[in-house]
């Protein structure tokens, strides 16, 4: 039950949405850029203050994820996206709004892990062909308004 809307969110919807976020983290962290981009709608958007421009559309999202993984690999680090405190704010059978915390952790080979960024994400999801997809993601760093 959402405190803001009073709308009931069924268990299957919650499970499928949680699976989306777990899948996304594993895909980008393991260099599976095309599959990561496919977790967004074809016109999906990624907005983050860490990057100068929004990334929009499957081709650009794929390139973004490829670069992210290659930069980490060439730096000799393993990067992990850790999504916690997932809150499905509202949902119906075609759309949902999700809030979560996203931590990006970097571990150099033989070194200690370090927190690179602590952020919040707000996602607008759409349901297409029985799958939940991200239509628009807005990332906010904790050091920005």
Could you characterize the architecture of this molecule?
With 145 residues, this protein is of the alpha+beta class. It has a single domain (11-141), classed as Nuclear Transport Factor 2, Chain: A. Helices cover 28% and strands 45% of the residues. It has helices at residues 11-29, 33-37, 58-74, and strands spanning 40-47, 55-56, 77-91, 95-108, 114-128, 131-141. The chain has a 6-stranded mixed sheet with strand order 2-1-6-5-4-3, with helices on one face. Strand 4 (95-108) and strand 5 (114-128) form a beta hairpin. The two termini are 28 Å apart. Mean pLDDT is 92; it is low at 1-6.
Which key phrases capture this entry?
globular; 28% helix; alpha+beta; single chain; 6-stranded mixed β-sheet; 145 residues; Nuclear Transport Factor 2, Chain: A; 45% strand
CATH topology: Nuclear Transport Factor 2, Chain: A
Radius of gyration, Cα only, in angstroms? 15 Å
**What is the distance, rounded to the nearest whole angstrom, between the alpha carbons of the first and last residues?**
28 Å
Largest sheet: 6 strands, mixed
The CATH architecture category equals Roll
Helix content percent band: 25-40%
Shape: globular
Average pLDDT reading: 92
**Count of alpha and pi helical runs:** 3
What is the count of structural domains? 1
User: Helices and strands: which structural class?
Assistant: alpha+beta
Strand arrangement in the largest pleated sheet = 2-1-6-5-4-3
Percent of residues in beta strands: 35-45%
Uncertain regions: pLDDT < 50 for 5+ in a row?
Answer: 1-6
| Number of β-strand runs | 6
CATH class membership = Alpha Beta
**Strand-and-helix sequence, N→C?**
HHEEHEEEE
């Amino acid at each position: 039950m959402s405190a803001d809307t009073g709308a009931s969110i069924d268990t299957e919807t919650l499970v499928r949405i949680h699976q989306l976020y777990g899948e996304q983290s594993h895909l980008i962290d393991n260099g599976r850029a095309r599959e990561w981009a496919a977790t967004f709608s074809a016109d999906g958007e990624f907005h983050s203050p860490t990057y100068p421009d929004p990334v929009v559309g499957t081709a650009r999202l794929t390139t973004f994820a490829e670069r992210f993984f290659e930069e980490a690999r060439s730096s000799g680090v393993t990067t992990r996206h850790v999504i916690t405190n997932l809150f499905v704010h509202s949902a119906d059978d075609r759309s949902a709004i999700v809030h979560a915390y996203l931590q990006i952790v970097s571990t150099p080979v033989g070194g200690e892990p370090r927190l690179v960024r602590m952020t919040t994400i707000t996602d607008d999801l759409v349901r297409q062909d029985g799958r939940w997809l991200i239509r628009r993601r807005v990332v906010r760093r904790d050091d920005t308004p």
